[in-house]
Design brief:
Layout: H1 3-14, H2 19-33, H3 37-48, H4 53-80, H5 83-101, H6 107-122, H7 124-135, H8 141-169, H9 171-192, H10 213-218, H11 220-237, H12 242-249, H13 254-279, H14 284-300, H15 308-335, H16 342-370, H17 373-394, H18 413-416
Helix pairs in contact: 2-8, 2-9, 3-4, 3-8, 3-9, 4-5, 4-6, 4-7, 4-16, 5-6, 5-7, 5-9, 7-16, 8-9, 8-13, 8-15, 11-15, 11-16, 11-17, 13-15, 14-15, 14-17, 16-17
Length: 419
């Protein structure tokens, strides 16, 4: 591809999106650039504080449990209070709890604050996704979600590298830097982002049912999608929980795992935008079927890996699945969500990933200890196949996306804060 063609492709990928989206995108990028704590938490607890690996695992589980709790709470807040107030509360709470985590020393206090960090940090996700759906035109949403996912991975790649250098200097500095950058995100939201929650219709039809968590849970097709998302998420989680254990058991050094998994972040940064241009207007059902199969069999091929190079090749396969799945799945969730229930629907969807983060480590450890890593990779192939078949059956008829003209006007920020 020539330089001119590359520039034109880049312009087409980023053009046409509203200014509010780019401020939200900037907030996401800054937030991920400062995400140091999750990277070095285990090292901080075991090396700096001298706790056992079991205790570090407990703290990580409590952090994940906090995310499970706030997935639903954050979705309800986004619909009731508004997207902007939810983001401000979540990001401010995250900054304060992360800073506090750097100062507490008692093991019970560390575990409790880690739970609060997980709860506060995850509460913003439904609001971010709901706001993005509010402000971006339906035909541009796949592209917008893809760009946001690209920012997440770019920020994580940079913060992961920076975390090692910061940890060598001071773990406390890492906590305070993350707290400061999260506050910057809150400032960006406060100054640059208006409330985007659609106004409730002034005259409701007789048949209109208010959206509650019960409404979401009774939506069988949507909950089917959430269940399939959970299966795919469990598979993807093996890249960070099953793969390092399996490589370590096979005699590979931590540096070997680092080299193999680095391919994941590199490919996402390089390929996310061009791949999105290819999939943007294609059938989401087929994309989800294909990505589920690629994820399952990408991890399944790991059973035949005997060198770092082959491990890296398998990472390439399931990373391509991740690139296709992430924006397509988020766009599908929006298309299945009623306008005035986006926060709750996004919260339940976020819950599927939070639960997967809890289940995947337990599953991988049990399977590897009981039967060996080969069985884990075979199980991933089975789960990916089941998810692909499920998408094919469940999503035969996708609902039509509501036209932009049918959306209710936006609630002013001052009014939303008192809603």
């Amino acid at each position: 591809m020539s330089v001119t063609a590359l520039r034109r492709a880049t312009r087409e990928s980023v053009s046409g999106l509203p200014r509010e989206f780019w401020w939200l995108w900037t907030s996401t990028l800054v937030n991920r650039l400062g995400a140091f704590v999750a990277t070095f938490m285990a090292l901080y607890l075991t090396l700096d504080r001298g706790y056992s690996a079991s205790y570090a695992g407990l703290v990580a589980s409590l952090h994940g449990l906090g995310g499970v709790v706030s997935s639903l709470a954050g979705g309800v807040m986004a619909d009731r209070l508004g997207r902007r107030p939810t983001l401000l509360i979540a990001q401010t709470s995250t900054a304060l709890s992360v800073a506090l985590l750097g100062f507490v020393r008692d093991p019970v206090a560390i575990a409790a604050v880690a739970f609060l960090v997980g709860m506060a940090s995850n509460a913003s996700r439904p609001a971010v996704q709901a706001m993005m759906a509010d402000i971006v035109r339906p035909e541009d949403r796949i592209r917008a979600f893809s760009l946001n996912y690209w920012a997440i991975n770019l920020g994580f790649a940079v913060s992961s590298m920076a975390a090692g250098f910061i940890a060598e200097y001071s773990y406390l500095a890492g906590f305070l830097i993350e707290a400061g950058m999260t506050l910057v995100c809150a400032v960006v939201v406060f100054v640059k982002l208006p409330e985007s929650r659609p106004r409730q219709q002034q005259e409701k039809s007789v048949d209109e049912v208010p959206v509650s968590l019960g409404t979401v849970l009774r939506d069988r097709r949507y909950m089917g999608v959430v269940g399939l998302s959970f299966l795919v998420a469990v598979v993807f989680q093996q890249g960070s929980v099953g793969l390092p254990v399996a490589m370590g058991s096979a005699g590979f050094a931590p540096a070997d795992y680092g080299l193999a998994i680095a391919v994941n972040g590199l490919l996402i940064v390089v390929l996310q935008i061009p791949v999105t241009r290819f999939i943007e207007h294609r059938d989401p059902r087929r994309l989800l079927v294909v990505s589920s199969l690629l994820a399952g069999y990408g991890f399944g091929l790991t059973a035949f890996a005997g060198s770092v190079g082959v491990f890296a090749l398998t990472v390439c396969v399931w990373t391509l699945a991740e690139i296709v799945n992430a924006p397509t799945q988020t766009g599908l969730v929006v298309s299945l969500s009623p306008v005035h229930g986006r926060g709750r629907y996004q919260g339940v969807y976020t819950l599927s990933w939070s639960l997967a983060a809890l289940v995947a480590p337990l599953m991988s450890g049990f399977v590897i200890d009981r039967w060996g890593a080969e069985w884990l990779w075979g199980l991933c192939a089975v789960v990916g196949t089941a998810a692909g078949a499920g998408y094919g059956v469940l999503m035969r008829r996708l609902p039509a996306e509501p036209a932009p003209a049918t959306l209710a006007p936006v609630v002013p920020a001052a009014e939303a804060s008192t809603a």
